[in-house]
Structures are given as structure tokens and as C-alpha cells.
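Figure S7 source data.
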Amino acid sequence: MFLPELKSLPDEDICLLVKLDNHTPHYICECGDAGLLSVKDCQNTQVIFISHTHIDHFVNFDTMLRHQIGIEKKVVICGPAGIAEQVHSKIKAYTWNLIEAGSIVYEVREIINEQEINIYELEPPKWELRKTGAISKNIIFDNERFQVNFTLLDHKIPSVAYLFKEMDTVKIDLSKSDFKGGVWVRELKTAFEQETPDNEIIIEGKSRLAKDLFHLLDIKKGNTLGVIMDHASSAENHAKIKALFSGCDKVFIESFYKLEDKTFAEANYHSYSQASGCIMRECAVKEAIPVHFSRKYDEEDLRLLIEEFERAYKGD
Ligand SMILES: [Zn+2]
Ligand SMILES: [Zn+2]
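C-alpha cells for the predicted zinc ion complex:
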């Protein structure tokens, strides 16, 4: 299960920390200025997901860099076309003569389009930007617990929206049978996961077909988490959001403006309270959370903005 925590206060830029139960590495979405982000949060982060590199989403990468030097691990940075050179440029702004090789490695996964990702690496002290590979699929990151798909939204530049999808888990319910547990349980789960129903499963010396035991298995659907940052409130963007985020368990979505400032939203390729709430309702998202508000708003404005979002989300 994903356990996201907002690390930015309502009047700060955006930063979301994503943890999972029983899983050590942390993940960060967006590097906006974030008062609640700790040194430990930065050091435990394995992957940084960036939607686009407007300053309010990328300014705090320097803080990440500051705290990650010396962790002696690889950290992956995911983002839109151009981000490898931008990470490189940020790093090159500092002097590195006292930092040793191996103190950190950055791998940058740069999204060229929805099926094409280029991979680069940078390492101290020289920090040369080297292309090391490419990925030709819509999965920007995956491990044993989850995978991350994405879509590119229009914000006058591409803005990457990420979908975190936990793997489904298979559990056995032995109370539905008279069998005792044993190695066969693992073999049965494997037959199910690998779609090999005719595998032979031996229980207490007797052979059976896996498919005849599949009724003992319960499939627990993996949890889903969406992070949709800056995007124009357009039909094309909404179609892409629907295609990827429908039925999602939890989504954080940009709602930069109040409804009365809709013209600013249109001019700046941003979304606004009502439009973000509506699209979340149309996607039947179970829990939608509006985030990333214009800094011109005071507390009362933000209360109204969130109210407008909630009304549209609930369809009142
Ligand atoms: Zn932006
Ligand atoms: Zn922004």
C-alpha cells in the first residue's frame, strides 16, 4: 500500500513523499520548496519523479543533492525531455574537488514520448553526462512491489503525470480445503502468476493439476496512486487523464486557480478547482486531493478553492 505524505505546506511549492508499507526506500514526486522535507527523507529516497522543470517543481533538487552526496547509492531521476541536461547543469554549478567517486550515482530517465525513454548516468567528481541505454515501453520505473506508468499532459510544455501501481498479490485460503501448507503453496501461486494451469502440484504425495486448486487462491488487487501536476484544462488532457487514472485509489491533482480565475488558468495552461474536481469525479477516483495552489491566495481563498474542488468532485 502506498503511503504518500505531502512535504510542502499549502503556501509552499509542491513536494510529495511516497512510502510503502514494509518497504525501505522512499520516493519523491516533485522537488518544490518543502518545509517538512527532512535530511533523512532525502537520504532514503531512491527515485525522484519530476513532472516538468518550472522552478516551483525543481528548485529543491539542490537540497536533495546536498543531502544525498555520500549515501553511496544510485538515485534515479525521472522527468521530461531535457531533464538530463538540466540536472547536469545544476550539478555543474558547484565545485566538487573534495568529493570522491562512488559517493553517489545519478541515473536520469528522460521521457522523450509515451513509449521512449533515454537513460543517462552522472557520477562525481567529473559528472560527465553519459547515455547508458534506453527503454521502449510506458513503464518509467518498476521493482518487486510496484511499477510506474505515465502520460504526457500539455502545460504549454510536456508535463508528466505518473501512475504508481502496486503489484496484485496472491494469497491462499487453506480453510477452503483439508490440506496443510507446504512447498506446494508456493508452486501453486507460481503456476497462477505464470499462467501455467496444467502444472503438476504434489500435495501429501498425491498429484493434482494447478487449475483444480486455483479456487483456493484470493487475489488482492494492488493499490494505485496518481500524481497529476500542472496541466491545461483541455479535452485532450482530460482524455489522457481518464485513460490512465480511472478507478484509481488516490490521486493528487494540480488545482492552481479558483474558479473565478479560470481565465488565468487558460492563459497559463493550468487547471482550476472545478475542472480538477470534475475530471476526478469522471475518473471515479476513490480519493482525490487538490494540491499546488497559486501563491497569491490567502487562507480564505484556499478554503474557497478547496470547497469548489470538493463540490465538483462529489457532483453536488
Ligand atoms: Zn508549471
Ligand atoms: Zn507548478
